[in-house]
Each structure stands twice: as C-alpha cells, then as structure tokens.
Design goal:
Elements (H helix, E strand, L loop, with lengths): L2 H9 L12 H6 L10 E5 L5 H8 L3 E6 L2 H10 L5 E5 L2 E6 L2 E5 L7 H4 L4 E4 L8 H14 L5 E8 L14 H7 L6 E7 L5 H4 L7 E8 L5
Parallel strand pairs: 1-2, 1-6, 2-5, 6-7
Antiparallel strand pairs: 3-4, 4-5, 7-9, 8-9
C-alpha cells in the first residue's frame, strides 16, 4: 500500500481496523509467550491501538512504529500523556511513560532504531499489506530481531476474491511459508463471520481469525 493511502485513512478518520477495546486474543494468549515484567514489546504498524496501553499496564516497555503522525498524536492524547518528540534517524520519536513510538516507514527501520526487544505483537501489520509487501515485511522483520524472540501473530482468513483488502486474507499456508524457520504454531482459529457485519455487507461468506505463536530464528 502507498503511504498516501494510510495518511488519507487517518486524516479522514476512516479507521475501521481500529478496535475500541483490547483485543481478546491478546488477553487470552499473551501469557503463553512468557514475557516477564520489564520485557520490551515491539508492535509494528501500531496505529493508536488500545493494546499498547494494555501491554504497558502489564509492566512491559512498548516500542511501536506507525506511518501516521495523526495516529501517534491521537494515542498519546487519548492516554492523557505528554510525549517528548525528537528526530531519530529517518523517524520522529515520541516518548512518554514507557512508550517509544516511532513515526515513519517500517521498511526504513534498522536494528539501531529499534533497539533491544524481547517480544513482538502483530495484530494489524501482516494483514494490512498486499501479498508482495507481506514477503518484504516478513524478511525485514527477521533482519530486525534477535534469535529466540517470541511472536504473537493474529491473522484473518476469508475468500480474498470476495473482498479487496485491507485487511487482507492471510491463510495458514502463507504464514508457514513466510515464517518457515520461525516454528509457527497455530494455537486457535475462530469463526467471526456472525459478528463481522461490515464484511458480510461486502459479500464475504466465510471469515476466521487465526492466532499463531512463533519463535524468531534471528538473522544469519
């Protein structure tokens, strides 16, 4: 997706992907990652997700990256936090109360920009990208992460021909291909069509959310 697409969505407040509550799968499956108090969690393409606040509330440091300045500014305003802002390489860094959010392009992120992280949470990144960009995304994520790091990944599955993304359908075989050496484990799959009215209205006839646990092998 082009940068302008996401900037327009945020400026027009066309953010149907934003959840007004903490993701229930985060609540249910986070303990399986064994992230201890003080662990640092990386949330790519983080938007203004309430999941960030939940993770911080568990005693984790939170690092996010987000293209839209509107999203980051709104997150700190809604959390009633005054963030300090400064340039950091290709990014604008917003920092407050255990949060460090980088405004800029995920694909420009380097290990030095990211710093040490212990866990990754991906609810809205992989499914936000079309197929070719998903390949780039997975490759770049691998290059950023140390060996042995745990990942909680949430995807959606539906017949792609029935609707244009985002969110894009990402099937299990694609997850296993993109992360073949990350030991991806499908831990649950839930039928969500009954509660997904806006997708049914677009003609989607089947829809599931899938939850995976992965372990980063690190870069060669």
């Amino acid at each position: 997706m082009e940068h302008d697409f996401w900037h327009r969505r945020w400026h027009k407040n066309e953010i149907g992907f934003h959840q007004e509550t903490v993701n229930p799968y985060l609540l249910e499956y986070w303990p399986k990652l064994g992230a201890g108090l003080g662990s640092t969690v990386f949330v790519p393409l983080c938007g203004k997700s309430l999941d960030l606040a939940w993770l911080r509330g568990q005693g984790h440091g939170v690092i996010g990256i987000e293209l839209s300045r509107v999203a980051i500014e709104t997150f700190f305003r809604e959390q009633r936090l005054e963030a300090t802002r400064r340039p950091q390489g290709s990014f604008e860094r917003w920092k407050a109360d255990g949060y460090r959010l980088l405004c800029g392009d995920f694909f420009a992120l380097t290990r030095d920009d990211l710093g040490p992280v212990d866990v990754v949470y991906d609810r809205a990144s992989l499914i936000a990208l079309p197929p070719g960009m998903r390949v780039r995304y997975a490759a770049h994520l691998r290059n950023l992460l140390p060996a042995g790091l745990s990942v909680l990944l949430i995807t959606v599955e539906y017949p792609q021909k029935e609707m244009d993304g985002p969110p894009f359908a990402v099937q299990q075989d694609e997850v296993e291909s993109l992360y073949s050496d990350w030991q991806p484990t499908l831990v649950a799959r839930h039928d969500i069509l009954a509660e997904a009215k806006r997708f049914r209205d677009k003609g989607v006839t089947r829809m599931h959310e899938a939850i995976y646990l992965l372990t980063s092998p690190g870069s060669a």
